[in-house]
Specification:
The structure is a homodimer of 405-residue chains.
Chain A lengths: L6 H4 L5 H9 L5 E2 L12 H14 L1 H4 L9 H11 L11 E4 L1 H13 L5 E6 L3 H9 L3 E8 L2 E2 L1 H13 L4 E6 L13 H13 L3 E5 L24 E6 L11 E4 L2 H15 L4 H13 L2 H26 L7 E2 L7 E5 L6 H10 L2 E2 L1 E2 L12 E5 L5 H24 L1
């Protein structure tokens, strides 16, 4: 069988995180491993009504093939929603996709030849790493700081790549409550990143799955809103705010780049489900997503706070141990003493009744073994406290054993 | 901008058929150009109920992320439906995809390196050509006969490719009521194709979008049902029978090949919409798709017959003009005298108030210019007769002008 596989497929492993998620689902385990939104935060009753109406009455459109660009009514609603983030978008600048993961696939397909270089955070979203890998690109990691990617390090890396004659294509960033760190990029760095992209003739691929999930602090405008040179492509997903199962996102960018995505999407799947696009458009035309998210944000804020307080309460008082304090999104990132390998720690944690995602899966350079990702989205506050207590015990035991060993 | 594009994208044009479809939509034109199913044949009222129930009550699954393999309940229903075609399938042999077009994308992605060779009909489905092209494969065309692909010609082509040292990967076929010709492959040829695949160590990619749309003649078993060597991958879509807008299909094949598709699908879009999978599973658990299709088949049969009768009645009595007589599906294929170029004829036809798809778009070798595809799915019988009358006039005028010129 293997002789039939393409090089790109031989090159692409199954996501290690998926395997970890399987283990985490064992009964009795408190799992901080998944990255799932809480389905109770979705407006399921109103979506059910919207679906009934759209499928029953508008079947000539909602059950039929549609434009590759996406249903115009859906795109218009997305434009209105995104205007909340200080950003004007025209209909020709937006294409509907089956989630942001497909957007990553289309971007990789449209722009990456084998050996092309992209730049991404250390750490960054594992699904993006997989997508770039599938298209045989070389991903160059750039350290993350408390206010987003280290842009000096980025420039150094870019110069080195350019000097070596490799073709650099884009910088991939998740500016708000990054997966996996929860870190948000400052406004200053957003503007600076545009300058760097211009100077070195690169695109910026901006991934914003947590738009609308800021529960604290000041909203930052998307990097795209600062773009005056047609270099930024932004993915905006409904998976965390309206429904993950409908698989809906849009990509926003300069017309010529969106055109390229339309061309490859045509050959990829003709069009995104018109059924789910019409359901979402129906719901959005009668409801304000930002208003609906008031409760969702409150839910995530509360869980985040419980997790931070529990970390404070149970984790050992050790200056080598730290964690991020996200202002939105679903994740907290914990850094442990350097000698700890969280891949090993994972098995001990599962035995101890708690699960997380080891950091290494988010690193393109083999690093991150001293870190781990915690997700606070779906659990009850008391489960979060209990889980962190268990995890703290595992960490303490591990550190004691190590210092003895 | 162009400097950012990947080689594969520079290589891939927009579908010329899409451009033709735009022109065909001008008001007042009777269009045989599209290949759309008739939305009135979809069970929209019952689907609306199913959607209401699944989204309202089962939102924890229907609005949440799902397995990359697809929702098991949906796959079980598809297995039951496909068992009608004399075929036993286990759950590990089936993956849900966003329509067959995505299945083509996944197959190309998993199996094709640049320069790899695939074999396909002359003519064949244009969307498949686009997909293979996007992955920089070389598509070798094999003439179609009245009972399917010319397998002697196929063997000659395979030998030539092998001799030249190129890597051949698979044969792509649409065995039932092929798009665009309407031709069905005989049982004898299905069995023979398996033998050829074994002999030359190739896979077979079987595309069956018109399963369930046979309105005449004896049902043929899928090629996959004859496979005793793990070489056949079959795509089966719901787009023509339950809803095109839900974008649902499955791929059935040997476990190791399905595994490869799961791996690439993970990086491609994580999973197919759980929302539409649950809606389809709900509907299918309460209804027999084959029973529902009784009316659909009757509708298509009637339209096909009207089109054949009209061709007989209005087209010039010229032995150089012929057309196929499909026993199912949506298309009739017309061959005109060799000197006619249907790309030119198209503009004359549109002026004359009727549209079709010129044959060249379905040929990987630049041929087919004397042929055209007619779709009879969505029109009323009187429109079909009128349209064929108009087309016949255009053809006659064209032939007269040519013989004078």
């Amino acid at each position: 069988m293997r002789s039939f596989l393409s090089e790109r497929t031989k090159n692409t492993g199954r996501s290690s995180i998926r395997e970890i998620l399987k283990v985490s689902k064992k009964p009795g385990i408190i799992s901080f491993a998944g990255g799932l939104p809480k389905p109770e935060t979705f407006p399921f009753d109103d979506l059910a009504e919207a679906a009934h109406k759209q499928i029953g009455k508008n079947y000539r459109q909602s059950l039929q093939y549609g434009m590759t660009e996406g249903v115009p009514e859906f795109r218009e609603e997305m434009i209105e929603w995104l205007s909340n983030f200080g950003w004007k978008i025209a209909l020709d600048n937006i294409i509907a996709t089956n989630s942001s993961q497909q957007a990553l696939d289309l971007v990789s397909k449209a722009f990456l030849d084998p050996g092309d270089v992209i730049f991404c955070g250390l750490p960054t979203y594992a699904g993006a790493i997989q997508s770039f890998q599938l298209f045989q690109a070389r991903s160059v990691g750039v350290p993350m700081e408390a206010d987003g990617m280290d842009l000096n390090a980025l420039e150094t890396e870019i110069r080195q790549v350019k000097k070596s004659g490799q073709r650099a294509k884009f910088v991939y960033v998740i500016p708000d409550f990054q997966n996996p760190t929860g870190v948000t990029m400052s406004g200053r760095k957003r503007r600076k990143l545009i300058k760097i992209a211009k100077e070195y003739d690169l695109l910026i691929v901006e991934d914003t799955p947590y738009f609308g999930l800021r529960f604290e602090g000041k909203e930052e405008r998307p990097i795209n809103a600062y773009d005056d040179d047609g270099r930024v492509i932004t993915m905006s997903s409904l998976s965390k705010v309206l429904s993950a199962g409908m698989r809906l996102a849009v990509v926003v960018g300069p017309e010529d780049l969106i055109e390229a995505l339309v061309t490859v999407k045509q050959a990829t799947d003709l069009c995104t489900s018109t059924t789910t696009q019409w359901i979402a458009a129906e719901w959005m035309s009668h409801h304000e997503l930002s208003e609906h998210l008031t409760q969702t944000r409150e839910h995530y804020r509360k869980n985040r706070t419980v997790m931070l307080e529990s970390l404070e309460k149970y984790f050992p008082d050790d200056e080598r141990i730290s964690w991020t304090k996200p202002e939105g999104g679903l994740f907290i990132w914990v850094t442990l003493p350097e000698k700890v390998d969280t891949d090993d720690l994972f098995s001990e944690a599962v035995e101890g009744g708690v699960a997380f995602v080891p950091g290494s899966g988010f690193y393109v350079n083999g690093g991150g073994r001293d870190s781990l990702r915690l997700c606070y989205s779906v659990l009850q506050p008391d489960e979060i406290e209990k889980g962190i207590e268990l995890l703290a015990e595992v960490v303490k035991r591990h550190l004691t054993a190590e210092s003895r060993g």
